[in-house]
Amino acid sequence: MAILCRLHDAYGDRLIEGLRAALPGEDLRLWPEIGDPAEIDICLVFRMPPGFLAQFPNLKLVSSTGAGIDHFMLDPDLPRHIPFVRVVDEDFASRMADYVCCWTLFHHREVAHFLAAQQRHEWSYRTMRAAREVVVGVMGLGQMGGLAARRLAGLGYTVRGWSRTPRAIEGVQGFAGPEEFGDFLSGTEILVNLLALTGETRGILCRDTFARMPRGGVVISAGRGGHLVEQDLIDALAGGQLRAATIDAFSQEPLPPEHPFWTTPGLFVTPHASSTASLESTVNTLAGNVLRFRRGEPLLNRVDLSRGY
Question: What strands lie across the sheet with 84-85, from one edge to the other?
Answer without folding.
Answer: 27-30, 2-6, 40-45, 61-64, 84-85
